[in-house]
Amino acid sequence: MEQEKNAVLMVNLGTPEAPTPQAVKRYLAEFLSDRRVVDTPRLLWWPLLHGVILPFRSPRVAKLYNSVWMEEGSPLMVYCKRQQAALAAALPDTRVELAMSYGRPTLPSAIERLLAAGVTNLTILPLYPQYSSSTSAAIWDAVARILTGYRRLPAIRFIRDYAEHPAYIAALKQSIEASFARLGRPDRLVISFHGIPQRYAREGDDYPQRCEDTRRALVAALDFPPERVMMTFQSRFGRDPWLMPFTDHSLRDLPAQGVKHVQVICPGFSSDCLETLEEINVQNREIFTHAGGETFHYIPALNDNPSQIALFRQLVSEPKDK
């Protein structure tokens, strides 16, 4: 009888390899070429992407990456590697690999290593708490394409999301309460999620509902007035209508409503990255304070916090039929 070999493949979005225009351009070209991310007909999208967006956007985004770059590298990659190492230590009998949907380490290389090692049971863990067709489903598509080249496949378990998993909500609650204890209770707790085009939701993507599920479970867990919690969406791109309300517009308008102290958490990001460290903690901080706000605090992502590693361990260890 063949001995079972278990493995976990953690997958996140990806990041440029360096905070340079050339590296950012390579990364954005791969990311924005995925039809799950941008489904505009290629005949229209390709000239716009390669003729306008990449040449003009890459230098600007590279400067933003440079402002948050850590000594060890891109924040997202640094925290993902720490998560991988911590989960591997927590699961000594399970091989833990890390891959990115775009950029390195690549999904094909990670899967090749796992299959070469004779893995028989593979759990794929997208590092997105809330499912979206533009993130989790893109991983599903990529894995399916890669596996078409192999004759022998392992048993595969795909963790769709964990938007209201008790361990996830408990970890967020712990993080928020620690922030409140240190800085006081804010006038508003802003829960900011990455946005998607409204059209994706109309066509069946249940991402907005999964964000709402997280918000609802978190509000129920917190000892904090529900009316002082607001859910917003950030990081819109392009001309299509995106999910609302927008985080930046909301933070701009709050001081006029008497809100002087806000704390912002971004539960859709399992690791801090450009969208949290620069967009939220720099750009949106400036928007709030310029509008008259006095105290702004960004509550960091769970990153390699032990509570998140315990969550990951629970997710990949739960019965397959749960």
UniProtKB/TrEMBL annotation:
Underlying gene: hemH
Entry annotated with the keyword Cytoplasm: yes
Reactions listed under catalytic activity: Fe-coproporphyrin III + 2 H(+) = coproporphyrin III + Fe(2+); heme b + 2 H(+) = protoporphyrin IX + Fe(2+)
Organism: Sodalis ligni
Family: Belongs to the ferrochelatase family.
Entry function: Catalyzes the ferrous insertion into protoporphyrin IX.
Signal peptide: none
Enzyme class name: lyase
Keyword set, alphabetical order: Cytoplasm, Heme biosynthesis, Iron, Lyase, Metal-binding, Porphyrin biosynthesis
PANTHER family registered for this protein in UniProt: FERROCHELATASE, FERROCHELATASE, MITOCHONDRIAL
Pathway: Porphyrin-containing compound metabolism; protoheme biosynthesis; protoheme from protoporphyrin-IX: step 1/1
UniProt cross-references to SUPFAM superfamilies, sorted A to Z: Chelatase
Pfam families assigned to the protein according to its UniProt record, in alphabetical order: Ferrochelatase
The protein, known as: Ferrochelatase
Compartment(s) where it occurs, according to its Swiss-Prot or TrEMBL record: Cytoplasm
GO cellular component terms attached to this protein's record: cytoplasm
E.C. number: 4.98.1.1
